[in-house]
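Q: What structure does this chain adopt?
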Amino acid sequence: MIERGFVAGATGLTGGAVVRHLLARGAEAIAHVRPDARDLATHRAAFEALGATVDTTPWEQAAMTETLRRLAPSAVFALLGTTRKRAKQEGARDATAAYEAIDYGLTALLRRAAEASGVRPRFVYVSMVGLDPSRDSKNPYTQVRVRIERELAAGALPYTIVRPSVISGDRDEARAGESLAAGVLDGALGLVGALGARRLRDRYRSITGDALGAACVRLAFDAEAEDRVFEPDALRA
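A:
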């Protein structure tokens, strides 16, 4: 059976890594890029040069369902998200609205489309460290992920959820705060680990986008990873 991955959010740090690791594995990689993306031609050229296929299906339920039915991926990678800065640049009234429209809305649409396609791919979702889906949250960023995890657990698709800590690496969009957080976090955890709390260090230290992408691909095709959740310490195996 051919391994084929459909990567939503392919132009992001982790998404690009997932595309590369799919190809390195010998799997087919389908990189989804928004049809109205400003740099569509650039992204298309870059992905096709790697050997990936570029898909530009619009974010509409029926269209996405038909695309997944036609392409029949064995894994769908949901790597969609935004930031406060990007939300402001794109005219969202606030970050909460952007999280609802993108982090939740597009991910939920993709999940429903995958379910309706009849193909039954593994749905690989990047959530966040330490999330407890049994508890509601007043934080809009966290609550979005609680809702998606609950829907995956209640849905018909096989799934794998990964919960990384801070994701580090070079991005097209600079995130100085994220880079600083990763440095501070890892420094503090290094000290904690030196004092003996190695499990705590390994659980919460940052992970590079490349390492996270490699973990997503590895787990997507691991039968034992189906319907399971993986915290940071398990993503570096």
